[in-house]
Write a structure and sequence with these properties.
By secondary structure, this protein is of the alpha+beta class. About 65% of the residues lie in helices and about 15% in strands.
Length: about 450
């Protein structure tokens, strides 16, 4: 009973996990899908390159294996694609390309007989191509499909040469040489009838030159040139004659006009002389009037000038004499007033001072004299000093005995000088200033 579960467990351990198997399968499926997608895309691209045809602007596509009804009602087994794209059905259709580019053709036709049997050498240039007209393109497919361009060129050239000979045979050399545009148009009309049947198209046709070996065109040109020269000479002679006639008529008219002009000039000169005489008379009269007016105006101006001069002299006299005198008088008066004003004021001030001094002296009583002297002390001292101001002592030589008394005597001389000055003031004024200056015993000042 115990061995069975163990065996079963061993078997299960040998098998891969279920989850791992699922992831691998999913990865394999994704890879296969991607590979299938890439392969399908490559196959699609290959099929498009193999079976999808694009019609370029200078070609047409011919699809065979597909029935088609043309515009004329005919049933065909192919169709022409002129533009766009076409997807070819494999194994059932084939697609061919036809070139629609121009094919240049140079035509050189010697001895082409014209009307009248005159041989002409024609040189022309044409451009031919496969027709892209739906009405004629099927004719070109039937005749030129898968043929080289040389074959188309050869066929178109032979057709143009034949058409050229047909047209020349119906025209005279004069018509071929003179009206080349009409000649080219007829050739295009004849050629297109044949080209439409073959599915070709003539784009351009230019006639380069027309020549002939017999010199018919040259002789014809000579005759025309001679006629033109003759006509030119006749026209020149006629023009000279007309010019001579016109010159004579103009000369006659000029002479008549000159005579008329001379007569007119003489008349105008006479009129001018008459007008000049009248103007000179008027000018002389005006001049005389102007002279009289000028003299009268000069006299009036002279009289006015004298009046102005008189007025000017009076004003000048008044300005030079009267006004300065008046101004000087006023200045002297103002100067006198200015000089008298300080003196007057000084007198008034001195009187006031004397009045005040008198009142002060009366109020002072017995000491009035001393107070007056003290008030005038500065003036008195100045008078005394003025007396001795000329005294000048430059050097003092002192001879001392050695005890220093000489120097003391010199120093004591200054107070003695002061005492002497005060004594002099006492003698002049009668006031003892020294006693006045000495403090009284018991005085607190």
């Amino acid at each position: 009973m115990m061995s069975f579960p163990l065996a079963l467990a061993s078997v299960r351990l040998d098998e891969p996990p279920p989850q791992l198997v699922s992831d691998d399968a999913r990865l394999a499926g994704v890879v296969m899908l991607a590979a299938a997608f890439v392969v399908g895309l490559l196959v699609l691209v290959w099929m498009l390159r193999q079976f999808l045809y694009i019609c370029r602007p200078n070609e047409l596509l011919v699809v065979s294996g597909k029935s088609h009804r043309t515009s004329s009602g005919e049933q065909t087994t192919f169709t022409a694609v002129l533009s766009g794209t076409h997807f070819r059905i494999p194994f059932l259709q084939t697609v061919d390309r036809m070139d629609l580019r121009l094919i240049p053709i140079e035509l050189s036709m010697p001895k082409a007989l014209s009307s009248g049997g005159i041989p002409l050498d024609i040189h022309a240039i044409a451009n031919v191509k496969i027709s892209s007209d739906p009405r004629f393109v099927y004719n070109a497919v039937e005749r030129f499909l898968n043929l080289p361009r040389e074959m188309i060129w050869q066929t178109a050239k032979q057709t143009l040469e034949g058409s050229l000979r047909d047209v020349i045979s119906q025209l005279t050399p004069e018509q071929v040489n003179q009206d080349r545009i009409e000649f080219a148009n007829q050739l295009v009309q004849v050629s297109n009838q044949i080209f439409n049947k073959m599915g070709l198209q003539l784009d351009t046709l230019k006639i380069q030159r027309v020549e002939d070996e017999a010199g018919y065109l040259v002789n014809l040109g000579r005759a025309q040139i001679a006629a033109a020269v003759r006509d030119a000479e006749n026209a020149e002679n006629q023009a000279n004659q007309e010019i001579s006639q016109q010159e004579a008529a103009a000369r006659q008219l000029a002479e008549v006009a000159q005579k008329d002009a001379e007569i007119g000039v003489a008349q105008k000169r006479n009129q001018l002389r008459q007008i000049v005489g009248q103007l000179e008379g008027q000018a002389q009269a005006v001049e005389r009037e102007a002279q009289a007016s000028t003299e009268q105006a000069r006299a009036e101006a002279e009289q006015e000038l004298q009046t102005v001069r008189k007025d000017l002299n009076q004003r000048k006299l008044h300005a030079e004499v009267v006004l300065p005198a008046e101004a000087d008088q006023k200045a002297q008066l103002l100067l006198a007033e200015g000089l008298a004003a300080p003196r007057r004021e000084q007198g008034l001030a001195a009187a006031e001072a004397m009045r005040v001094l008198t009142e002060a002296l009366q109020a002072a009583g017995p000491n009035a004299r001393e107070l007056f002297v003290l008030s005038q002390l500065d003036a008195l001292v100045a008078q005394v000093a003025d007396k001795v101001k000329d005294l000048s002592v430059r050097e003092i030589h002192i001879v001392d005995s050695g005890d220093g008394s000489s120097l003391a005597q010199v120093a004591a001389a200054y107070p003695a000088i002061v005492t002497e000055v005060l004594s002099t003031l006492k003698g002049l004024t009668g006031v003892d200033i020294k006693n006045l200056l000495t403090p009284v015993e018991g005085d607190k000042r």
